[in-house]
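Sanity check. The docking grid for uridine-5'-diphosphate-xylopyranose depends on where the pocket ends up, so I'm generating a full predicted complex first rather than guessing from homology. Inputs follow.
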Amino acid sequence: MKISVIGTGYVGLVTGTCLAETGNEVLCIDIDQSKVEQMQNGVVPIYEPHLDILFERNIKANRLKFSTSLNEGLDHGDIIFLALPTPEDEDGSADLSYVLGVAKNIGKAIQNYKVIVDKSTVPVGTSDKVREVISKETDVEFDVVSNPEFLREGFAVDDFLKPERIVIGSSSEKATALMKKLYKPFVRSGNPIIVMDERSAELTKYAANSFLATKITFMNEIANFCEKVGADVDKVRVGMGTDSRIGKRFLFPGIGYGGSCFPKDVKALFKSGQDNDYEFNILKSVIEVNDTQKKILIPRIDAYFNHDLKGKTFGIWGLAFKPETDDIREAPSAYIIEALLKKGAALKVFDPEAMQNIEKKFGDTLTYAKNMYDTTKDIDALIICTEWSIFRTPDFDKLKSNMKNPVIFDGRNLYDLEDVKNEGFYYSSIGRNTTNS
Ligand code: UDX
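Predicted complex below; grid placement will be based on this.
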């Protein structure tokens, strides 16, 4: 099949590359000329595990191409994926200007039947808006389909190639048949292609992400309460998660959820509720609790150093919003950095992938360490913000000899309490007793 993907962010690039992998001829369009040139030269512009191998293979096989010309894209594809940004507006709602702008151009350029697929996370009713905008410009037959993505950064390729489910919102049999044909190779395992109306498909994405964000937030509150009553959240988590109605996943407490999806989607669903005369009280709390959770380590650090952080130096391990990505959007680390700088502390930071992105944001206000141990030289305390595997088994002796004080504030519960205690550390984590050697 001939596929065009408009927008080559995380979602567009993974979608285009993985669709080429099953033999489709894919043309990816982006307005950013230097990015397109980079991709034409075989360079993947983002860090996403395994994407580079598929990318190279499909470019070589002539199945994956790139262009800045929207018209070329609209001409090429029988199916046109819209993987465009839907940034948060000032009021929290999703900004649809990119999606509707491209829809208008589609209306102007369309010559024969096309299926337009909304891949971006868009509020309920957007497919109707896209249809309306295109219809104003043309009489040519087309269909609009909602096909939300459920890709996790760091696992996006695997999630695309082996999805647990594909959701297709479509009211056209012709479009549904084409979409099913396109996705058939990805659901050989028997996982379902779930077809529903467009509005339900659009809401499915928001409901799924908001539910997961709520699950994490609930666990963060339980963790905070554990500290008040002397319980251990790791034990509570296992005790709860073994109930199959609850499930073990997404119960890990920490310093809040971040990333490009959860924060934006929870806010957008809340705003969408208000626009439709419905108050999502639960989501309001989720947003508030998560904002506080991101900064939960700050008062602890402050108290430990007698409310005077001027002249203190802290090391930070982990800057990306989660492991296996270089993405720092809504990362708790950024909130912690801002708060500590404001209190006059100096910071040395390290992340296996996100150094460039954090440097773009913070410039020369931070010291950028060469590796994880370099971060710890002469620091007053170590703060862990992201649970990269490399941080899980440090050489504690090396840490102790590097650091001024053996003090760790861990926002991701990486270590066993007994282990760090035996190693002689003051160790403060989330939802567990603070150990003091
Ligand atoms: C998410 C959804 O999982 C994906 O289906 C959707 O399409 C896009 O948004 P992603 O943002 O890549 O994917 O990250 P995810 O792995 O879901 O983690 C989101 C956030 O939750 C991270 O900040 C992570 O640290 C946090 N998290 C996750 C927890 O704090 N605890 C957990 O138990 C799980």
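Relevant for the grid: The chain has three domains: 2-196, 205-293, 295-428.
Also worth noting: The CA atoms of residues 79 and 115 lie 5 Å apart.
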